Helix-turn-helix domain-containing protein (Limosilactobacillus walteri), 98 residues
Amino acid sequence: MHCRREVILLTKINAEFPDEFTNSIKNAIIQVIDEASKSALSDQYPTYMTKSQAAQYLNIALNTLDQWIATTNIPYVKFGKIYRFNRNELDKFMTSTK
């Protein structure tokens, strides 16, 4: 019962705030969620990834990653037959690709 009163009270208060204020709060919440999801991904994927890890990180097939290597400027470093992909550089690449 106590929680219901708080929800009703918050709903009434929310209606009284200006749109700019509520939009600022929404944007701040979205930013926190984005940062938390990025942090979760950084815990799951190393900074320097193999081709297989990079494909999984980008949610694409390994064949697609091979095509991107051949046809785009996807950032990677190659040591002999070994490819390494920097997670931060991949993020930049994906945000700049249209």
Notes: The radius of gyration is 21 Å.
